[in-house]
Design goal:
There is one protein chain. The mean pLDDT is 97. α3 packs across α4 and α7 packs antiparallel against α8. By secondary structure, the chain is α/β, with parallel strands linked by helices. The longest helix has 14 residues. A hairpin with a 3-residue loop joins β3 and β4. A five-stranded mixed beta sheet has the order 3-4-7-9-8, with no helix packed on it. The chain has a single domain, classed as Metallo-dependent phosphatases (Purple Acid Phosphatase, chain A, domain 2, 4-Layer Sandwich). The protein contains eight helices and 13 strands.
Length: 251
Amino acid sequence: MTSPNRFAAISDIHGNLHALEAVLERIRSLGDIELTVNLGDILSGPIEPAATADLLISLDLPTIRGNHERQLLDCARAPGGASDQFAFEETTAAHRSWLAALPATLPLGEDVLLSHGTPHDDLEYLLETVTQGGSRLATGEEVASRLGAVRRSLILCGHSHIPRAVSLADGTLVVNPGSVGIQAYTADQPLPHEVANGSPHARFAVCERGPHGWSVSQQLVAYDWDRAAEAARRHGRPDWASRLLSGRNEA
């Protein structure tokens, strides 16, 4: 696959069909987007995993798997976390076969690489570092170390849900488009920390190749988050409902 000159990147949908539909409509309205790519963590969450899978399978976007694809599939062997288990129980064998066939990384030509966490570990943040004090922006040296020998002019990642672009000393641009589906969460690994983008808007990014390299436009999209929150409440997850409405980790 050759790399496009102007494309959209989406990530971390987490079964939020309502946010995904709004993002795809915004991408269509831009008119000259050559391709949309999907960076993983697709279905896990208490909203609409099966309908989200149906839509994405029909679109056949270049797509990679994230850690939650692996965790969802692991529910066939033992019960998983609440979001993974819900998505596992709500999806079909055909949906899960689609997830199982997704690659961990995907090149677009010679100069663009899609990954979820780092190219080597779907659970490791690429652009953030978690310490006892919480999550902070990773240094350029930390990002370069996590990439190892992997280099492209543009590397895309997801996982942290934080929209961000970091330029390395060697000219590599690393971009996280943020999350389509959920704008706040708490996690225990590698240390306890939280992420909160501060508004409920769905996120994605537009990447464009120009005469001086890649440019990136981070996008925020309003959607019917009340409807998404109602689905989360109906499925027993008031914690998700609150985060969907505020983009914050508030009770």
